[in-house]
TrEMBL record:
It comes from Roseimaritima ulvae. Residues 23-376 form the Sulfatase N-terminal domain. This is Arylsulfatase. One of its GO terms (molecular function) is arylsulfatase activity. Keywords: Hydrolase, Signal. InterPro entries: Alkaline_phosphatase_core_sf (IPR017850), Sulfatase (IPR050738), Sulfatase_N (IPR000917). It comes from the Bacteria. Residues 1-19 form the signal peptide. It holds the Pfam family Sulfatase. Belongs to the sulfatase family. Coiled coil: none annotated. PANTHER family: ARYLSULFATASE FAMILY MEMBER, ENDO-4-O-SULFATASE.
Amino acid sequence: MICILATAAFALQVTSVAAAERPNILLIVSDDQGYNDLGQLGNGIITPALDRLANEGTRLTNFYVAWPACTPSRASLLTGRYPQRNGIYDMIRNEAPDYGHHYSPEQYAVTFERIGGMDQREVIIPQLLKPNGYKSGIYGKWDLGALRRMLPTSRGFDDFYGFVNTGIDYFTHERYGVPCMVRNLEPTEADKGVYCTYLFQREALRFLDEHADKQPFFLYVPFNAPHNSSSLDPQIRSSVQAPEKFKQMYPPVEVETRVTNKYRYGTPATVATAEARRRDYRAAVTCMDASIAAMLDTLEQKQILDNTIVVFFSDNGGSGGADNSPLRGRKGQTWEGGIRVPCLVRWPAGGIPAGQVCDQFLSSLELLPSFLAATGSSVPQGLVLDGYDWWPTLRGETDSPRTEMFWKRRATIGARVGNWKWVDMGDGKGGLFDLATDPGETTDLSAEHPQQLQALRSRYQAWLKQMDAAEPRGPFRDF
């Protein structure tokens, strides 16, 4: 298999892979999970399935997502293109519920959260795998458009069950009172009251029963765990909902709630304590982990686990009860804690070493070109990608071809070139950091290395110019 990346356009060309060798793909994405929230790292969280993936595969420690929050990160992992190139460079959500507003159905129908979505000219993973015989399913969080023409089955997926926006109540499946669950193209409330992680597990296992060992498949399971619950009830919203049996796996919390006069709705509110929020967060992760274990067990029973590419990572840095140590910052920020996330890759049949730790500079932009390389699928002529084939790097054959990466979230900026990182938080905070010796971004070296700082700023401006010159995509860009 040969992979050639054209430097200017990041174009990918691959030779065909024999049908008998085509691997399956299981892509699992958690929501707001912390960098240090893996059981094997020793912080007390319980994740036996994720630990299994780490022990039987490779754990990436220098892996980044393309944006520090949900929507743009998910668009980039599916397109292999920077948010500024694919058009999704901010959130598709409504702000009013943040301040207690409950939309009426008529109001909600014309809000941006309802009508916004990824540009229909963008091409995503299942569309590129389909000509090579792949069946594709997605079960969980879509977050790239709620209208029928923007839903997964209108974008190349064969089957979809999940919710369409940034977050929901785990039991009612509503986002601040608005029902959000969809099966293929139709809204549904059939499973209202059932904890949604169980539903996504159910659908993923059904997909495997129907398609595994019959044809190659791409199964995408984007959990909403452990994202905070989207509810207008402050006590629910201030934490993560989790089944009681998973809460009981952690030490009891002495005080569950507290009253605050600083809640965003502007009135005294009962909210979860920090201890309860931490417990609930961990319980939601452990519940998700049990669902992942069920998928791995099913693949193993069908004797296809070793030739299934299993990739797990978080869509962005952790928030709420998460542990991002030793990194600085959290979700929504361009500090390392907002963009560097846990990532695990297992594929024994593809030569991925077991029990290895890889500190090579890699990102979620690498997923699409790497999946295409592994499956012998091709890229349409003229499609510009921002990622690379990572398999030679994960096998230990070559260093990562990625040498730089850039982030822009409104006025918040991040740029990494080699081991140097420049951060501008837009509020006077930031600086220049040497990640080789200071991954926690504790020591600003701007004064000591002004030329290096200028070099990173220049590279960032060159990248921004390249993004501005790209073929425009909606929904945010003016064209």
